[in-house]
Amino acid sequence: MSLSESFITVTTSANYVRVFTLFGIPYRVYRPKSSPTVTCASWRDYVLTIGNGAVGPDGITRLQYTIENVKRDEVIQNEDTVALPEGATLQSVFFSDNGEPCIYDSTGTLLTLLHWRQPSRAYWVPLLDTKLLDRLASGRKSESYFPVAVADNKFHCIILKGGDRYPYFPRPLLSEFEFSIPLSSAPKEKLRKNDEDETMEDDEDESAESETKKLEQQFILQGVKAAQLRDLVDSTSGSHSQRSLLARLELEIDKTLLQLLAVECREGEERGMRALEMVELMRDRTGRMFEAAGKVADRYERTLLGEKIREVGERRTGGLDDDE
User: Fold this and answer.
1) Which UniProt keyword terms apply here (predicted)?
2) CB-based contacts of 32: which residues, under 8 Å, 6+ apart?
3) How close are the terminal C-alpha atoms of the chain, in Å?
């Protein structure tokens, strides 16, 4: 059963999905194609149902999800596969406070569904892999996380100690973790140790690498947020405040790329191609960010890079960019 601001959705053992208004008036009854239905979640007029699909090559049934707008009687995502790795199980499905579908699986990974408002374009993006949290890097802690919500761009959960699977009484306080998209498979501490043992980098190099990783994480997270907001704006003819927020978010993405550019310029002339690629990822169409990027290159005496940056800026502002 799930409850939203508009409807109550009930999945039953009789393979029916029953939708009621908030005051109990029957609104819709149907039998889903993927049955039996496993669970459901709701947000405003949207209902996400998950049911059993075809059996995979490993003999395990694949879960499939459907998202529909109940009020408009419109199916948006139809019988698509829930992205679970081999041997993993679905632990929770819910919508975030902004209305983005999310799942949490038995591997401790939180994922969100990107581009779900556009038919056949949706895919699952990991927002957090709890196995890579800094608090577990030492290997001395044994804990798992019971998902509660995704709100304010954070993962809210209850920490379970030892082998506990469900919250106990008295219920512990909620904990929250910042999103951290898994850009690598190894914990940060292990990466540092490998670098020290194999390459003996000095403290300055480690600081630059740490700064780069932090900015890369910031860049990709901002990209996900911008994609979610753009989907909302495009599908609802967004309000002025939403469009202004999207413009500010895209500006923040360009500022992050500027910071990454400065790091690359400090590292040396041989990083010029990577630095230029960062400039090409900028979303600015006014030319101001390209002018700022050129100044960054000039500050570090990267003359050739500065010329290339200005060429990219001229193409972009002149509408000659291949991506246009």
Assistant:
1) Nucleus, Repeat, WD repeat
2) 15, 17, 49, 51, 66
3) 45
CA-based angle 200:205:209, to the nearest 5? 110
| Residues whose CB is less than 8 angstroms from the CB of residue 322 and which lie 6 or more positions away in sequence, other chains included | none
Could you tell me if 77 and 50 are in contact, meaning their C-beta atoms sit under 8 angstroms apart? no
Strands 74-81 and 90-95: what pairing?
unpaired
Are 164 and 111 within 8 A, CB to CB?
no
How many of the other CB atoms lie within 10 Å of CB of 30? 12
Q: What is the pLDDT of residues 7-20, one digit of tens each?
A: 999 998 888 999 99
Secondary structure tally for the chain: helices H, strands E: 6, 15
Query: What tens digit of pLDDT does each residue of 250-261 get?
Result: 999 999 999 999
Distance in angstroms (rounded) separating the CA atoms of residues 18 and 15 = 10
Q: What b/e sequence results for 207-246 when a residue is b if at least 16 CB atoms lie within 10 Å of its CB, and e otherwise? A: eebeeeeebebbbbbbbbbbebbbbbeeeeebeeeeeebb
Q: Give 65-93 as a DSSP string.
A: EEEEETTTTEEEEEEEEP---TT--EEEE
pTM over 0.85: yes
- Distances in whole angstroms, Cα of residue 105 to Cα of each of 97, 108, 194, 255, 260: 19, 6, 29, 34, 33
Maximum distance among all alpha carbons in the chain? 72
